[in-house]
UniProtKB/TrEMBL annotation:
The gene is LOC113720174. Keywords: Membrane, Transmembrane, Transmembrane helix. This is Replication protein A 70 kDa DNA-binding subunit D-like isoform X2. The chain crosses the membrane at residues 90-107, 141-164. It comes from the Eukaryota. SUPFAM superfamilies: Nucleic acid-binding proteins (SSF50249). InterPro entries: NA-bd_OB-fold. The keyword Transmembrane applies. It comes from Coffea arabica (Arabian coffee).
């Protein structure tokens, strides 16, 4: 298997008979694209050189691969379609390609000795630094915070359309509450799920949010955003423990 392995940076839409060894470092909830009339799920994979490539799964393959591809596990993956991305705004990784994966793609969990490390896979941005970022944020932007409150659902009129927005208040050790808004496309999946578990004060990992100037500085979803909940990494556990030791609204 290792003899046939290529790096993420070597993948392109003209390569054949390839295998990559990658860890799952991002995984969205299953989402429904009404404009496409189908459900899908997004992934981001990282290799041992630090490069990343996004993956997408559609329709009936979603339920199968949601069970197979687990966050932070390492796999050999092959026999997927390598699709070139022409819009830089939707590139989630370090290469301008996307893997279209099906249940018939080659996917094999690696031997434990070949697992890729997941320490320091995210470069978390402090809330205090968000004001210096450009409006659409950065492809490497990652935010880790606790959800401390759900705000009332709002409706905005944009271009003659009614747009639903669900806002949350998030907090980290900086003690600077921040508004995080989930826009309409996220409401049926990530938004509803977060509303349901918000009273548990989950830790949220938000990859590639949009940095907005609403409320001074705030965060919002955009097309390339992936939101994950209570991720099993040391930094998330430390944040949860910090919150549990807080008086009042915390655990004590």
């Amino acid at each position: 298997m290792e003899m046939n392995r290529v790096a993420i940076s070597q993948l392109n839409d003209n390569i054949y008979a390839w295998v990559i060894r990658v860890a799952v470092v991002e995984k969205s909830l299953i989402r429904h694209a009404h404009y496409m009339g189908r459900k899908y799920q997004r992934y981001v994979f990282a290799d041992d050189l630090g490069d990343r490539i996004q993956g997408i799964v559609y329709l009936n393959d979603v339920q199968v691969l949601d069970e197979v591809l687990q966050l932070y596990s390492t796999y050999y993956i092959g026999s997927a379609t390598v699709r070139r991305l022409t819009n830089n705004r939707v590139v989630l990784g370090t290469v301008a390609f996307e893997l279209v994966i099906t249940q018939y793609s080659f996917i094999q969990l690696v031997d434990p000795s070949l697992r890729l490390p997941i320490d320091n896979i995210y470069n978390f941005t402090p809330f205090a630094n968000l004001g210096s970022l450009r409006y659409f944020g950065d492809s490497n932007l990652a935010i880790l915070a606790m959800v401390i409150e759900v705000l009332p659902l709002q409706i905005f009129i944009i271009g003659g359309r009614y747009i639903w927005v669900q806002e949350f208040i998030i907090l980290n050790e900086e003690m600077r509450p921040m508004i995080f808004a989930m826009w309409e496309d996220f409401l049926e999946s990530e938004g509803m799920h977060l509303v349901q578990i918000a009273n548990e004060h989950p830790v949220v990992l938000i990859c590639r949010p949009k940095v907005s100037r609403l409320y001074g500085v705030s965060l919002a979803t955009q097309e390339q955003t992936i939101v994950m909940y209570n991720v099993d990494i040391p930094r998330a556990r430390e944040l949860h423990e910090w919150y549990e030791t807080m008086p009042g609204d915390g655990g004590s």
